[in-house]
Amino acid sequence: MDVASLAEGLQALPLSTLLAAATAVVLLAAVVMRVLSNNFPGKAPPVEEGIPFIGGLIKFSNGPLPLMCEMYKKHGEVFTIPLLHKRMTFLVGPHVSPHFFNATDDKMSQTEVYNFNVPTFGRGVVYDVDQRVRSEQFRFVADALRTTKLRTYVPAFKQEAEAYFSKWGDEGVVDLMQAFSDLIILTASRTLLGREIRETMFKEVADLYHDLDDGMRPISVIFPYLPTEFHRRRDAAREALRAIFQKVIKGRRESGVKEDDMLQVLIDSRYRNVYGGRATNDSEIAGLLTAILFAGQHTSSVTSSWTGYRMLSNRKWFEAAQEEQRRVMRQHGDTLDMDVLNSMDVLHRNIQEALRMEPPLVMLMRYSKEPFSVTTSEGKTYVVPKNHIVACSPTFSHRLPHVFKEPEQYQPDRFAPPREEDKPIPFSYLGFGGGRHGCMGQNFAYLQIKTIWSVLLRNFDFEMLDPVPEADYTSMVIMPKPCRVRYIRKKLAA
Ligand code: HEM
Fold it and tell me: Is the minimum distance from the CB of 299 to ligand 1 under 6 angstroms?
């Protein structure tokens, strides 16, 4: 058959048949290309085909953990899953993770994978700006979280925690997650957003934060601007919060009164290498405060809760933490400052171990701007192509038995000498990420959680009424499902 008669024959076909045939050809081509790309096992990572175009999307949307588990068993530490038109390569465990954490942003970018946050934080900050601007904005944040500033935040943590728990009765039943969420937004308001908000606008800000938070759902990661009611409420809340922050900033600028909080540091910050060295503007300050509130709120309340659930269901660790409080109280009385908190190794390791078992961020992501190679613990080398979404999972990596012995067991002493299981291979412990974009709030979080648990250990005893809760993997930040704990007010004798 010549070309002309082929064209004539095609013209005679109905449009629907032509479209179906064209789709079939494109699908076939995609399958062939994917299969071919699998033929270089020494180079590209193994690809799990799934259904063409949809790829691993269905499995992925049932939760990334079962998918990772299945793929890890099948392919090992590195594998690729097609998700619609994108490809996601998973790097499991410390051997294949250094590039992910150490590479510069021009090689492993955050913008493409985290820009779903833009409608939450607002324009002009964090993932809405290029990397040079972002790194300066994060410098401002780092200034507000350096040791000298943290020292001034600790009395506020203590005061807020004592005031909050003083409202509990002599005994009762609580859901720790709920209690810590309420308390942590109070301490964050005070140390980060500022005295004015804590004292006069707290309820309003907490409600707006709730709407903003509710507007970030798994679907928002793929379609952040989908015209839904929860996105509409998110946008309204963001603008209302911005207006509140701007009012407070104006008041501060006019009065000339300086406070010891992150808001003040952000007001006083100036760019160095971009924007002609100008000062931060009100809108940027509001956006950064919102981003920081987001970074610390759920992560800290979740970690405080798991610390409680795990200590209480492994009673010897709860008792060890009580004993440590007794020792500290004998040495320092009621004083609870940064140095005292830093001396609490037992409590520290309880928090660290709770965070190992249940990290609130199930996946950290980057976007490969150029190919890079990784070598597995078994010595296999793969080249991850450019334009892949690349993911590391603290949750999954923390449960690898060749990294953490008996990973399903709660053993805070795995971090103490002589075990120190997090030390031999860098990036074994990912509770706070690591490398170039490791958590800037790690010390803030430890001080805050230690203050809360010190106040609790000194004033209450607890009993779990339910088994250790399961984690809810359907939310953006992985949280414990509801769990009842009984408390009894009881002063700890030193
Ligand atoms: C227990 C509480 C917390 C946990 C588990 C946690 C966890 C993490 C993790 C895993 C990352 C790395 C993300 C990535 O590599 O993509 C991160 C980044 C970050 N965290 Fe935290 N975080 C906590 C508390 C906080 C707090 C309280 C603040 C601020 C006051 C904060 C501010 C940040 C910032 C600004 C970054 C981004 C750093 C960068 O991209 O360079 N975090 N956090």
Answer: yes
Q: What is the pLDDT of residue 84?
A: 81
d(CA 314, CA 307): 11
**Residue ranges covered by each domain of the chain:** 1-34, 64-489
For the record, the structure tokens of 343 come out as 């001396």
| Protein fold of 64-489 | Cytochrome p450 (1.10.630)
**C-alpha to C-alpha distance for 266 and 281, rounded to whole angstroms:** 9
Q: What is the pLDDT of residue 13?
A: 58
pLDDT value for 39: 44
pLDDT at 252: 95
258-284 core/surface letters (b: 16 or more CB in 10 A; e: else): eebbbbbbbbebebeeebeeeebebbb
Question: pLDDT confidence of 49, banded at 50, 70, 90?
Answer: confident
- Any bridge partners for residue 51, and if so which? 55
Structure tokens at 382: 């793969």
Cβ(295)–Cβ(262) under 8 Å? no
> Which residues are registered as beta bridge partners of 373?
383
Instruction: Tell me what pLDDT residue 22 has.
Output: 54
Instruction: Pick the residue whose CA is nearest to atom 19 on ligand 1.
Output: 439
354 lines ligand 1 (CB under 6 A): no
- Ligand 1 probe mutation, 143, 288, 432, most atoms within 8 A of CB: 432
CA distance 235 to 114: 18
CA dihedral 259, 165, 177, 360 (to 10 degrees): 40
Atom of ligand 1 nearest to the CA of 444: 27
Distance CA 303, CA 453 (A): 11
Amino acid at 385: P
pLDDT for residue 410 is more than 90: yes
Half-sphere exposure of 70 toward its Cβ, with a 13 Å CA cutoff? 14
- Ligand 1 centre to CA of 296 (Å) is 7
> Does ligand 1 come within 6 angstroms of the Cβ of 69?
no
Q: Is the CB of 184 under 6 A from ligand 1?
A: no
Mean pLDDT of the chain: 92
Structure-token match 């940027």, residue found: 284
Confidence of residue 26 (pLDDT cuts 50, 70, 90): very low
| CA atoms of 336 and 325, how far apart (whole Å) | 11
The structure's pTM equals 0.91
Q: How many CA atoms lie within 13 A of 296 on its CB side?
A: 28
Predicted confidence band of residue 310 (pLDDT cuts 50, 70, 90): very high
Measured between alpha carbons, how far apart are the two ends of the chain, in Å? 96
